[in-house]
TrEMBL record:
Protein name: F-box domain-containing protein
UniProt xrefs under Gene3D superfamilies: Ribonuclease Inhibitor
Upper taxonomic lineage: Eukaryota, Fungi, Dikarya, Ascomycota, Pezizomycotina
Biased composition range(s): Pro residues: 167-179
Segments of this protein annotated with the region Disordered: 155-186, 615-649
Domain of life: Eukaryota
Keywords annotated in UniProt: Membrane, Transmembrane, Transmembrane helix
Length: 649
């Protein structure tokens, strides 16, 4: 389907030029015509003035000699009984009728004398007659000029309308509907009008518009990015093919796949040997058999392991008691349905050749035999973006990071993922609050980020992690490629225990920030944010805070007063894990003392200054910002049913 932009008839520059040329030519000719008409009128008026006065002089002379003019033709009587009164005949009759008047007697001198008297005495009457005549001539000239211009314009318009039908004068080639020029014109329309236009287009045209201009993506995004949501038990292949036929299989670029293992210890849910854990239809859609342009897959784990449930917690703990060798895993997958389900899911996913963005939601770190396959390694090597959100739980006050098998399984899987993801440009790693990464002490789970891995990484985002030498070394190893760093709910490790020797291994914020502030780095944006500590610059309640009335320690009040006086001051966080439960706790004393010392603030300001210098003159900064934040909401109302097609499982 082609898209023809709607434009007014005067929106064509060529039409403007042609009309302007014709009107200009008409005006020029009209001016010449007026000048000529004025000159001719003046000469005519002068000549006729002399003729009129001469004839009137002759009439007066004839009357002086006693001749009677034909009053029935040239005059009138107010009263028939009164003597006749002479009235000058009309101008147009003077030249025709006066020639028959008698001019007997008299001399030429008398005639010249009367002619002179007539010119002087009849100026008022003669001038009025001549002005009326000249006005008629001038008005006629204007009418002719307007008619000429109108005829010229109509002729030009008719030529333009008839030009495409004339074989000898073919119309110039028009740009394609999706050319940048036309898209620029459409982009100038209000968003609501753009929404109306795109709403009536077919899916192929919407896809073409999206690829034309970045500014149009915010309007077209809700229309041309449909996704599918299915589960592992979906087996309605006919419904799947019908959905793809209706909405265009080449337009589906996102898949939401939910893995729902049954109860981990329920023997009734086991599947016999040779029977797949994932339906054939689900495997086909996951592998991209019917969706050649699938780019993103959101893989969600739903193990039904609820928090604060001891039974579920013990089931989850047992799930991590597993081998890592391929043969042993194959045996487990043959015996346990939920493990076979995971293996089938990853095997089908590894067969997908088009996906470049993989997102884990509630990722449960359990091993699968699919992680040993060559297809899986190739699949990870094709990814350009990876988002991992790790599942965590707790039993009472006991966090999952107190389970050694969980920590070991998570660490080993992260190593496998990062080892093979050689094409990654964006990485988002979100740990659970029940198991923060890179902590010190007994519950340490490394980030598993190596300076020699992920050579193309440009954007790194971490959540619920601890900073330290491991992260600083990784950032320095990617100083020439890493552009943005987002640390959300990230802390420096500092314990309150006097007997905790591991606390000495933690790094303060100041040396960490100074360590990543490396000459020649490409980093141009650092984001530090948190959800749980209200002593930050982003706290909306800070403007209404009254330190004198708050029920807080005096040192905390001083921190708030300082931030209120200077909102640019940052409050960098320090935390630790409790010994017996593994829970995350804030170290208030370390936070306040570091704030008062000012070393963290100084290192932060130095790094920000360096990043500003890196961003100056960089035209990529704005483009990267758009890509990171996504298309802005255009305000178009789009039915959810047109965005996500959820098929029953």
């Amino acid at each position: 389907m082609t898209v023809t932009p709607i434009a007014s008839s005067g929106s064509n520059p060529t039409t403007y030029n042609n009309n302007a040329a014709q009107i200009g030519l008409g005006v020029a000719l009209g001016v010449v015509f007026i000048i000529a008409a004025v000159l001719v009128t003046a000469l005519s008026m002068k000549t006729r003035s002399e003729i009129v006065l001469r004839r009137r002089a002759e009439v007066d002379l004839a009357m002086a000699r006693g001749a009677q003019p034909p009053l029935q033709s040239y005059g009138f009587r107010d009263n028939p009984s009164s003597p006749p009164q002479w009235v000058h005949p009309p101008v147009e009759l003077l030249g025709r009728e006066l020639s028959s008047w008698p001019m007997e007697g008299g001399s030429d001198a008398d005639a010249r004398h009367l002619f002179a008297l007539g010119r002087n005495g009849q100026d008022g009457v003669t001038a009025g007659v001549l002005e009326e005549e000249g006005g008629k001539i001038f008005l006629t000239t204007l009418i002719l000029l307007a008619s000429f211009i109108n005829t010229s314009c109509d002729s030009d318009i008719n030529k333009q309308h008839q030009q495409p039908s004339q074989p000898s004068q073919p119309s110039p080639p028009q740009p394609p509907p999706s050319s940048p020029t036309d898209m620029h014109r459409i982009d100038r329309l209000p968003d609501d009008i753009q929404c109306r236009i795109f709403h009536d287009l077919d899916q192929v045209s919407k896809r073409q518009l999206n690829n034309t201009s970045r500014s149009l993506r915010k309007v077209t995004a809700p229309y041309f990015n449909p996704s599918i949501r299915i589960t592992e038990s979906f087996n309605e292949k006919e419904a799947l093919l019908l959905t793809l036929q209706q909405h265009g299989r080449e337009l589906i670029d996102e898949l939401n796949f939910c893995v729902r293992p049954k109860a981990l210890d329920n023997q009734d849910t086991q599947v016999g040997p040779g029977k797949p854990g994932v339906s054939t239809a689900a495997q086909e859609i996951l592998s991209g058999t019917h969706t050649p342009n699938l780019r993103r897959i959101n893989l969600e784990y739903d193990f039904e392991l609820e928090k604060e449930a001891p039974t579920k917690f013990e089931q989850g703990v047992a799930a991590f008691d597993q081998p890592k060798e391929e043969e042993a895993l194959l045996q487990l997958e043959n015996d346990q349905t939920w493990r076979r389900l995971l293996a089938d899911t990853w095997n089908a996913l590894s067969a997908n050749r088009s996906v470049t963005h993989l997102s884990f939601k509630r990722f449960v770190p359990v091993w699968s035999s699919a992680f040993h396959s060559a297809e899986f390694r190739k699949f990870m090597g094709r990814l350009e973006r990876l988002d991992i959100s790790i599942f965590g739980m707790k039993n009472g006050r006991r966090s999952i990071n107190t389970v050694p098998t969980y920590n070991d399984s998570l660490q080993s899987l992260l190593k496998v993922f990062f080892l093979h993801a050689s094409s990654l440009k964006r990485l988002t790693l979100q740990a659970s609050q029940q198991a923060p990464l890179s902590a010190r002490g007994n519950y340490h789970i490394p980030l598993s980020l190596k300076a020699t891995q992920l050579p193309k990484l440009e954007h790194l985002a971490l959540k619920n992690c601890f900073i330290g030498f491991e992260l600083a070394h990784f950032i320095n190893g990617h100083s020439t490629t890493l552009k943005t760093l987002d640390l959300h709910n990230c802390y420096a490790y500092r314990s309150t225990s006097t007997v905790d020797e591991s606390s000495s291994g933690g790094m303060y914020w100041a040396p960490f920030l100074a360590l990543i502030n490396k000459p020649g780095m490409k980093l141009r944006r650092l984001t530090l944010s948190d959800d749980h500590i209200p002593l930050t610059i982003d706290d909306k309640r800070l403007a209404k805070y009254n330190p004198e009335k708050a029920n807080e320690p005096e040192d905390v009040k001083n921190v708030r007063r300082a931030q209120k006086a200077n909102p640019k001051k940052r409050l960098l966080l320090y935390a630790y894990l409790r010994d017996y439960s593994g829970e995350l706790w804030m170290n208030k004393d370390a936070i306040v003392s570091s704030f008062e010392a000012g070393d963290d603030q100084w290192a932060y300001d130095e790094l920000v200054s360096a990043m500003k210098r890196n961003a100056e003159g960089s035209q990529e900064a704005a483009e990267e910002e758009v890509q990171e934040n996504g298309a802005a909401d255009s305000g178009c109302e789009v039915d959810d049913s047109t965005e996500i097609y959820e098929l029953p499982g």
